[in-house]
Amino acid sequence: MSAQYSEPLPYPKRQKVFIKRILTRLEKIYSPEDTVAVKKFLSGWCLGANFEDIRKGNIVKFLSWAMYAKKDADLEKDEREEIEDFFVYLKRKHGITLSPGYNYTVRCATLSLDPVHFLPRPILVYISIQCLEIVKFAVLTLLGFSKLTASNGLAYYYRPSSSSTPPREPSQQPLVFFHGIAPCGCLFYIPMVLFGLVRSSPRAVFFFENQAVAMTMTMKVLSEFEVVDGVAEALDMHCGRRVKMCLVGHSLGSCPVTWIARSLPDKIGAIMLLDPVTLFLSHPAVAVNFVYKRHFTNIFEWIIYLGASSELFIAHYLKRHFWWYRNELWLEELPKNIQVIVALSREDEIVDSSLCEFGLNNQKRLGDIGNNVSLLMFEGGHAVMIGMPATWRRLSAELKAVETGKRE
After folding, report:
1. Looking at the domain 123-404, which fold is it?
2. What transmembrane ranges does the database entry give (predicted)?
3. β-pairing, 155-159 with 146-149?
C-alpha cells in the first residue's frame, strides 16, 4: 500500500542546525573524538549495514528525508548545499569520508516516504475490538468517567476530582494520560492508572484517545497542534485556566507529552514518561526496531510485529503522520521547575534503554539536565510495567515524592 504522503510539519529549528545539534549531543555523550559512535549512528539509519558498504549517495537519500521529508531527486539547490555541508562537517570533525556513488544493496530508513506495508487482519479482529470498546466505555462509566470530545474532535474520558475544592497541592493536580499503541487505546492502562498512579488521590483524571493507533479502523489523524489545542481546551473547561497538570505518557503516548511540553510548559507541574520513544528519538533504534525489523529473536518481538507494527491503521499512522523531528523530547529545554520521571525497561524490544540510561546519566554529569529529572529502571520488556502492580507502587511513590518535594 502506498498512501498519499502527508504534508510535513515544520522543523522546530532550521534543519541544518537541528541535525548538527543531534551530532553534537552524540559527541558530548560519548566523546568529541569518538568516530565509532557517529559511524554507528549512520549505519543504524542504514538498517544496520556495515559502514564500509555505505556510500555518499545512501546518506544523501537518508538526509533528504531526515532534513526535508523529500526524495533526493526533489531537493532544491540550497537544500543540496546544506546536505553537502554535513559531509564537510564529518570530514573536518571526525575524519570520515564516504566513497562516492550509491550502493543499491544498502537500504536506509525514509519512514514517511516508504510504502505502507501491512498484514491483513480478518474482519472478526476489528469486530472484537469494537466489542472491547463497548466494554471500555461501560467500565469507565462505572468508574465515574464521562466520554467527551473537544471542539476539534479530540476524544477523551474524564473523571472529576473527588475534592470539592480546587487543587492547591501538586499531588492534587489533574493527571492527563496518553496511551501507546494498543487495542482499544486506554483500556489496558486503566488498572495501572487508577489503582497504581492515582490510587486514593482525589485528583481529576483524563484519558486522551488516539484512535489511529488503537485498531479502531480509522485513518483520521489529528495534528500535533490540534491535540495540544484539544488538551488545553479540556483542561481549561473542566479544571480552570490556572490549574497545572501531571502529564503521563506510555510509549507512543510520550509524543503528545512532548508536544504539550513544548507548547504549554506553564501548564505542567510534573511529567512521567513510561517506556518513552521520544528520548534520543534521532537515534535509529526506535524506528528500526518497530517499523523495519524483520529478524526476531524472541516471542515478544513477534508479538510487537504481528500485533502492532504490521496492522494497517497503525502502519499508516507511523508512515504518514509520525514526524520524528517534532516528537523528540529534549529534556534540557524543559523549565527546571517541571519534575520529570523517566521509567525504562531494561529488556525493551523497541527503545534502546541502555542508550537512554547512559545518555541521561551523562547529561546529568555534564550539567545539561538537572535534579528535576529522575530515572527509574525496571526489569522486563516493552510495556511489561503496565501489568506489574509492584511497578505501579514504585511509580506512584516516586510521583508522590517529586510532587511533595520529598525525593531523596
Report:
1. Rossmann fold (3.40.50)
2. 177-198
3. antiparallel
In this prediction the pTM is: 0.94
Residue 318: strand pairing partners: none
The model's pLDDT over 49-60, given as tens digits with 9 standing for 90+, comes to: 999 999 999 999
| Residue found by looking up cell 491503521 in the block | 313
pLDDT-derived band at 404, boundaries 50, 70, 90: confident
How many Å apart are CA 254 and CA 176, to the nearest integer? 12
- Cell numbers 521520544 correspond to 278
Please answer whether residues 219 and 313 qualify as being in contact, where contact means their C-beta atoms are separated by less than 8 angstroms. yes
Write down the domain spans for the chain: 15-111, 123-404
The answer to whether 150 and 361 have CB atoms below 8 angstroms apart is no
Tell me the residue type at 168: R
CB atoms within 10 A of CB 295: 6
Among 198, 206, 253, which residue's Cα sits nearest to residue 234?
Answer: 206
Please give the order of strands across the beta sheet that includes 373-378. Answer: 146-149, 155-159, 205-208, 175-178, 245-250, 268-274, 339-345, 373-378
The answer to whether residues 257 and 267 touch, using CB atoms and an 8 Å cutoff, is no
Look up cell 526535508; give the residue.
68
User: Grid coordinates in use for 311?
Assistant: 496492522
DSSP 305: I
Q: What is the pLDDT of residues 128-180, one digit of tens each?
A: 999 999 999 999 999 999 999 999 999 999 999 988 777 767 778 999 999 99
Burial of 257 (0-12, 13-18, 19+ CB in 10 A): buried
Give the dihedral of Cα atoms 237, 322, 312, 274; nearest 10 deg: -70
Per-residue confidence band for 321, with pLDDT thresholds at 50, 70 and 90: very high
